[in-house]
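Q: What residues go here?
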């Protein structure tokens, strides 16, 4: 079991909640809770209401989405999928938050607490404005909370340090690592208890599969696509990097789709470094000799390629570059159905076509199908992993 008081020797730790090492007995002395207890469920559903009453939060769609996911109705629906007396908490869970997705850590934190565990989250040293706002609001809420669940969590930040991480990992009953392949591989080298449950979520990519879209549906499809790619600058694993069109789609439909996407795109800002990354990636595709056309819109680029290799997707920098390919047959999609594929966003794709795609290469690498606009909606079954079951015994 993790004990925060054991970390007193590390002066590089920044204590976010509890506020100081002197207050860590609250966490250390807290017992684990019953699986899906009323205290835990109410703790997060009340935080949902707290968030939705903050004017600053209402201006951030990803925080509003989180607040809606935390509603009592949704959490109760998740809880009802499991039989309480068949599950018990692991004990203590250590979690590494990702740097590129502002709110993802909070979903798995929630599931860790709901399953009755004590949870320690290591946050990045440079949180984004949205992540900072979420953390600020959550700490304020926890400080006023009367729920026991607040005693079972800790939020800390520290520079990369294997002594600190190793100490936490060595005593954890479960670890959750969100990050790139390098981060995941590094944490796999740290020694854990034999009984520890390890949940690793490395680099993944997603694609969009689109059929012939009726003119009356173009607006809906375009807005859904924007929702999937814009929230995290196309950095989320679930955000499509490649747009694949079915064989029957007309050139006119593709042109109209991108025109409507551009019309509804809104204002997005990229840093100078992100702009440079965009140009480097575009030049990479051009030098590879597969680029057929480049369409530059106000805030994004669409690059037509004759065919796509997995390396092209792995090197993709996000930042609103869309690699576009028109299939000659569904079997051409096979090259993209690789182990790193997380999911497929789709629109105007029939059930028969989805089944045919699923059957390619056994369909084993398609972890998730999502209708355009729903790719970033978090599920407790993520990347093919039932996190509720894995965070409990």
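A:
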């Amino acid at each position: 079991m993790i004990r925060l008081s054991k970390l007193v020797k590390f002066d590089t730790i920044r204590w976010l909640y509890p506020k100081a090492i002197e207050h860590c007995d609250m966490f250390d002395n807290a017992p684990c809770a019953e699986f899906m207890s009323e205290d835990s469920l109410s703790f997060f559903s009340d935080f949902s209401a707290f968030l939705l009453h903050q004017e600053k939060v209402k201006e951030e769609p990803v925080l509003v989405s989180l607040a809606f996911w935390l509603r009592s109705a949704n959490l109760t629906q998740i809880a009802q999928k499991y039989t309480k007396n068949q599950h018990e908490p692991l004990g203590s869970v250590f979690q590494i938050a990702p740097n590129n997705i502002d709110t993802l850590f909070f979903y798995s934190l929630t599931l860790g607490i709901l399953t009755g565990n004590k949870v320690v989250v290591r946050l990045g040293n440079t949180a984004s404005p949205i992540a900072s706002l979420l953390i600020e609001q959550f700490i304020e809420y926890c400080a006023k909370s009367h729920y026991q669940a607040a005693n079972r969590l800790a939020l800390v930040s520290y520079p990369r340090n294997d002594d600190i991480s190793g100490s936490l990992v060595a005593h954890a009953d479960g670890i959750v690592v969100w990050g790139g392949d390098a981060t995941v591989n590094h944490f796999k080298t740290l020694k854990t208890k034999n009984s520890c449950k390890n949940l690793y979520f490395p680099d993944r990519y997603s694609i969009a599969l689109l059929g012939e879209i009726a003119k009356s549906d173009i607006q809906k499809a375009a807005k859904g696509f924007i929702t999937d790619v814009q929230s995290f600058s196309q950095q989320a694993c679930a955000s499509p990097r490649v747009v694949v069109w079915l064989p029957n789609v007309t050139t006119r439909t593709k042109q109209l789709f991108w025109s409507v996407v551009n019309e509804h795109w809104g204002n997005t800002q990229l840093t100078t470094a992100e702009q440079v990354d965009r140009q480097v990636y575009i030049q990479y595709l051009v030098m590879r000799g597969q680029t057929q056309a480049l369409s530059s819109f106000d805030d994004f680029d669409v690059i037509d390629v004759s065919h796509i290799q997995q390396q092209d997707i792995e090197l993709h920098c996000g930042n609103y570059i869309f690699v576009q390919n028109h299939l000659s047959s569904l079997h051409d999609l096979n090259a993209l159905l690789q182990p790193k594929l997380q999911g497929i966003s789709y629109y105007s794709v029939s059930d028969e076509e989805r089944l045919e795609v699923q059957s390619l290469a056994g369909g084993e690498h398609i972890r998730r199908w999502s209708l355009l606009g729903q790719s970033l909606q978090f599920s407790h079954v993520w990347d093919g992993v039932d996190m509720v079951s894995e965070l409990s015994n």
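A: Context that may help when evaluating the design: The first helix runs from residue 25 to 28. Residues 219 and 260 are 7 Å apart (CA to CA).
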